[in-house]
Amino acid sequence: MAAVVAATALKGRGARNARVLRGILAGATANKASHNRTRALQSHSSPEGKEEPEPLSPELEYIPRKRGKNPMKAVGLACPLCHQDVVSVGRLQIRALATPGHTQGHLVYLLDGEPYKGPSCLFSGDLLFLSGCGRTFEGNAETMLSSLDTVLGLGDDTLLWPGHEYAEENLGFAGVVEPENLARERKMQWVQRQRLERKGTCPSTLGEERSYNPFLRTHCLALQEALGPGPGPTGDDDYSRAQLLEELRRLKDMHKSK
């Protein structure tokens, strides 16, 4: 799993941090893996009915999606991960964090950068995107807020590698709800330059996301006053933040449909 997760990050062409990850992977392959075989699911976007892709390494075994009514359920999964489980491959240490909300069993993965004297990497799946977050298909606003707070507890220099790249669209929406946010404006200009040069926009950092991602800014008074319902019936701050997150999600879905 570690190799699959790390290799996914290398899709950000030309990024300095992609070169860092290549160095991490090179260091891992120089050591004997602590697991002889690593099982991995096919990617989230793999088409149905296709032959299995070539493994990224001889140690990877792909488990195909289950055909039928629910193709997202895999068969033959031998070692499901739980919150705070750690997968070790050589010097790679990847910690699973339970982040329900998008789905009940959603996990994100934190690659520890300490052994390589570099930043840690968060592979956030469908929880957190550049200036956005996932929809709550199997959860509610309170659950999603708790999961977002889980990753907010990580360091500002943590690199964010999301499961999808919606940077320009998400930053456009962020400009609607926070039109005077200068950090968002600078990031939008950078993203547009990257696109013109046919370059990737990932990763960002959690420190950056705190400055312009509205779904991580439900604590901000300006957003609460503009969109939120006010304090909860008992003055519970998490109540008002969850209600604000729900309203942001509703507005984002409407913004996308325009």
TrEMBL record:
<dbReference type="Pfam" id="PF16123">
    <property type="entry name" value="HAGH_C"/>
</dbReference>
<dbReference type="InterPro" id="IPR001279">
    <property type="entry name" value="Metallo-B-lactamas"/>
</dbReference>
<dbReference type="InterPro" id="IPR036866">
    <property type="entry name" value="RibonucZ/Hydroxyglut_hydro"/>
</dbReference>
<keyword id="KW-0378">Hydrolase</keyword>
<dbReference type="GO" id="GO:0016787">
    <property type="term" value="F:hydrolase activity"/>
</dbReference>
<keyword id="KW-0862">Zinc</keyword>
<keyword id="KW-0479">Metal-binding</keyword>
<dbReference type="GO" id="GO:0046872">
    <property type="term" value="F:metal ion binding"/>
</dbReference>
<dbReference type="InterPro" id="IPR032282">
    <property type="entry name" value="HAGH_C"/>
</dbReference>
<dbReference type="Pfam" id="PF00753">
    <property type="entry name" value="Lactamase_B"/>
</dbReference>
<dbReference type="GO" id="GO:0005739">
    <property type="term" value="C:mitochondrion"/>
</dbReference>
<feature type="domain" description="Metallo-beta-lactamase">
    <location>
        <begin position="4"/>
        <end position="164"/>
    </location>
</feature>
<feature type="region of interest" description="Disordered">
    <location>
        <begin position="32"/>
        <end position="58"/>
    </location>
</feature>
<protein>
    <submittedName>
        <fullName>PNKD metallo-beta-lactamase domain containing</fullName>
    </submittedName>
</protein>
